[in-house]
Each structure stands twice: as C-alpha cells, then as structure tokens.
Amino acid sequence: MEKYDAIKMLELVKIEDPDSDGGLTMIFQENKTLKIKIVDGKLVSEFL
Prior knowledge:
Layout: E1 12-16, E2 24-28, E3 33-39, E4 42-47
Antiparallel strand pairs: 1-2, 2-3, 3-4
C-alpha cells in the first residue's frame, strides 16, 4: 500500500468529522492531510 507511505509513522494531529465536504479529514505531522469520503457508494481517499 505505497499510497499511504506518506503518512507512515507520522503522528495524527487533528481529525475533522465531518469536514466541509461531509467526509472525514485527518491531519498529520508535517501538514500531511488525508481526506476520506464516499462517492457513488465507494470509499475514496486523497492526499492534499
């Protein structure tokens, strides 16, 4: 799961539930952000 290597071993700093899009936003050290939401019945995640 190389997609998540960017946050491997980083401390979780803040969780926004729900976020402005109605999903979940997880903010990690070093300003790494992971957004998770449901789109068309499927779980979708993206890094910002």
